[in-house]
Specification:
By secondary structure, this protein is α/β, with parallel strands linked by helices. Bound molecules: adenosine-5'-diphosphate and magnesium ion. Magnesium ion binds near residues 307, 308 and 557.
Length: about 700
């Protein structure tokens, strides 16, 4: 047996079990070996029932004395009750609601390990555990294997379909017995310096901890062995990222020149004084643009922090060097916004800016494409339409990609391949922890704007239930009377823009006719033509419309400083990041701004989201909460993110280890102990980790 052996060769895994394992992605011995316990129980020194105390979490091994479906209205509740006793002769009563299925599982005389919170039932005067986790100990295992389940610190695995923790424990044990000790591939001096234990004992002891292991450390995933496995997983990942980055860095690119003439141009374009943070990041970007290699940089900054103007500065540098600039946005609204913004500030310098989106006619498109192909338009702004095969640039030098998390990575490459390695600047308002960003976006450098433009007042956020909508409206009315403007936003229900549009249309009728008959109200949704959208935006910008009713198409990028009220209907349906983005549409001017979250029905996580938003306007905090509430998979989006599938490591829980691993990996690749060490590492990553980490496609 070796790591590549199919699991069907392991004793006890027939076709049925193999199929269940395969459905979870577990096919080889290596896969199951990498399926680590998520929890451990100390069954080495268990208490007897007589010694249990109410309130404690305890494991007990006891025998079933009686087991039955019972109680009043038993059919409805399906209350299953079992009574257990052990050598102390005391009784422990356990109960399961909806436990009907247990009638075929637990029977008198069975030996069972039970785990749960002990309580004292004052009604019956008995010690009880409600819904204990349990494991039947008498079974069909060999005698030698029976000792795996009691009398030691026991690993608890997440069940795989019908394979219980107990079955997985036995199978894993068989694999560990059948394998030769694994070769340790971590560089030896690194292991020595960080005092990491060797691979084989780490693997063994993470599955079956030795008697003297510390249960608390194990359950926090910080035993020496667990630390090593987590570190290793991150280390090779980060080595892969560093290698990839080094390769990208070595490509030939454009060395933009920056001289006084160009500096003067940039200054002439700026409509205001940049903040300290903006100055710092533009310097980082400009320094990178000067290098004769392609720039791959991410510009991070909270909603409203002023990323666009920084991008415009970079654009001026490229254009003054005789190159074209592409600006890519995820939605038509945002592309239109950027178009209006860039056109306004860049027209001062006499540059032609064109917009290219899906809703132009093919004749219009053909004309615009010609302008771009002949180099007459130095700036082309657009949506996916800009990525179409027949869009050709005369001399593309800089690609600016907004809200990168909405674009597939491959699409980004599509744009980049339109020229010989142009510089790339991606902008995002999702402020994820820096190390995580560098890991996820692999070859990107990160610049952060961590300061808001001056004079911003924090947005006041309030929660209102739908029955208080009248108060919300009268608040809007007062703000509008003071000269302000307001947004009212509706969620896209079940991914249907059509339905959201209908809801918005209905509300538009209601608000404009009944609630605010004297106030000009506008409507915005995804089904409008580009022209209609632009028109609605312009009217709102110029103050001819005072209330804009909209679907979430305005989520990103819309910038109307005089708007001071954001009303979000059915706010419970939105995600945290989305709510934060929407809220960011106000608070862009000097006036105090407000965000009113109107909710109908809420569950616990929705309540948590609303609470987070009312409490904080800090995008970084909100992003971390979002990550926590949703988990990394959903947060980053499974397909687009390039988030590698990790086995032991968890980017949230193990953030500290990720930091260390990253530092060590960068150092190792830059200054390997010897050329052979580097060669060996590269081969090892290629053979063992590349595919799993998706390193071929990351970034
Ligand atoms: P985001 O980072 O969300 O893309 P924007 O670039 O849209 O932010 O900027 C938000 C608003 O702040 C815009 O109205 C912009 O003109 C303004 N702004 C940006 N930087 C400054 C600054 N240094 N001083 C004053 N206003 C600024
Ligand atoms: Mg923006």
């Amino acid at each position: 047996m070796d790591l590549t052996t199919p699991l069907t060769y392991v004793k006890g895994i027939g076709p049925a079990r193999a199929a269940m394992l395969k459905a979870k992605g577990l096919v080889t011995v290596e896969d199951l070996l990498g399926y680590y316990p998520f929890r451990y129980e100390d069954r080495s020194n268990m208490k007897t029932i007589a010694h249990l105390a109410p309130g404690e979490m305890a494991t007990v091994v006891a025998e079933v004395r009686s087991a039955k479906l019972s109680g009043f209205r038993r059919r409805n509740l399906g209350l299953f009750e079992a009574r257990f006793s052990d050598s102390s002769r005391a009784i422990l009563a356990c109960k399961w609601f909806h436990g009907g299925y247990l009638a075929n599982v637990l029977a008198e005389g069975m030996k069972v390990a039970l785990y749960g919170k002990v309580e004292f039932d004052s009604y019956s005067g008995e010690l009880t555990i409600l819904h204990p986790e349990f494991e039947i100990l008498s079974g069909d295992d060999d005698d030698a294997e029976a000792s795996l389940h009691v009398g030691r610190i026991v690993p608890i695995y997440e069940a795989v379909a019908k394979l219980t923790t107990r079955v997985l424990r036995v199978l894993t044990h068989r694999i560990l017995e059948g394998l030769e000790p694994l070769e340790d591939n971590l560089p030896a001096d690194l292991r020595r310096r960080l005092k990491l234990p060797e691979l084989w004992p780490s693997v063994r002891e993470t599955h079956f901890p030795p008697p003297d292991a510390d249960l608390r450390l194990l359950n926090n995933f910080r035993s020496a062995g667990q630390f090593r496995l987590i570190f290793e997983e991150f280390f090779w990942l980060e080595c892969g990222v560093a290698l990839k980055r080094a390769k990208a860095r070595a490509l030939p690119g454009i060395a933009f020149e920056i001289n006084d003439r160009i500096r003067e141009k940039v200054k002439a374009m700026l409509p205001f004084k940049p903040t300290g943070a903006q100055k710092r990041v533009i310097k980082e970007i400009a320094d990178d643009m000067k290098e004769p290699h392609p720039m791959n940089r991410m510009l991070q900054g909270d909603v409203g922090s002023g990323k666009t103007i920084v991008a415009a500065e970079a654009a001026v540098i490229a254009i003054e060097n005789g190159y074209q600039v592409a600006v890519l946005a995820p939605t038509e609204i945002l592309a239109t916004q950027h178009y209006l913004y860039f056109r306004q500030i860049l027209s001062k310098l006499g540059y032609v800016v064109v917009l290219l989106t899906g809703s132009f006619t093919s004749r219009e498109k053909a004309q615009l494409k010609k302008l771009v192909a002949e180099g007459l338009a130095p700036v082309a702004i657009g949506t996916h339409a800009l990525l179409e095969k027949d869009v050709e640039f005369h001399r593309l030098g800089l690609a600016i990609i907004d809200e990168q998390h909405r674009f597939g990575v491959l699409q980004r490459l599509g744009l980049v391949q339109k020229a010989v390695h142009p510089d790339v600047l991606v902008m995002t308002a999702t402020p994820i922890p820096r190390t995580l960003a560098m890991t996820l976006y692999g070859d990107l450098d990160v610049s952060v704007i961590d300061e808001l433009p001056p004079g911003r007042k924090p947005i006041v956020t309030r929660h209102a239930t739908a029955d208080r909508i009248e108060q919300v409206y009268s608040f809007m009315k007062r703000q509008i009377d003071e000269g302000r403007q307001a947004y009212v936003v509706y969620p896209v229900i079940e991914e249907s823009e059509t339905q959201a549009m209908k809801a918005a249309e209905k509300m538009y009728e209601h608000l404009s006719r009944e609630v605010f008959p004297t106030i000009p109200v506008g409507l915005m949704h995804g089904r409008l033509s580009a022209e209609e959208k632009e028109d609605a935006m312009r009217q709102f910008k110029e103050g001819r419309i005072q209330i804009l009713v909209s679907t979430t198409v305005i989520e990103v990028g819309v910038d109307v400083p005089n708007a001071s009220v954001m009303v979000i209907e059915q706010a419970e349906r939105f995600g945290l990041a989305q709510l934060h983005q929407l809220r960011g549409r106000v608070g862009r001017g000097a006036a105090q701004s407000y965000c009113l979250l109107v909710t109908e029905k809420m569950n616990d996580t929705a309540r948590e989201r609303i609470r987070t938003l009312v409490e904080s306007t800090d995008g970084f905090y909100i992003s971390e909460m979002d990550l926590k509430l949703r988990g990394p998979g959903e947060f980053f989006g499974t397909k687009q993110s390039g988030l590698p599938s990790l086995r032991v490591a968890n980017v949230l829980r193990d953030h500290d280890i990720l930091e260390i691993a990253r530092r060590e990996a960068v150092d190792f690749i830059a200054r390997p102990p010897s050329p052979e060490d580097l060669k060996r590492a590269v081969a090892y990553i290629r053979d063992h980790w590349q595919r799993r980490y998706g390193l071929v496609t990351v970034g």
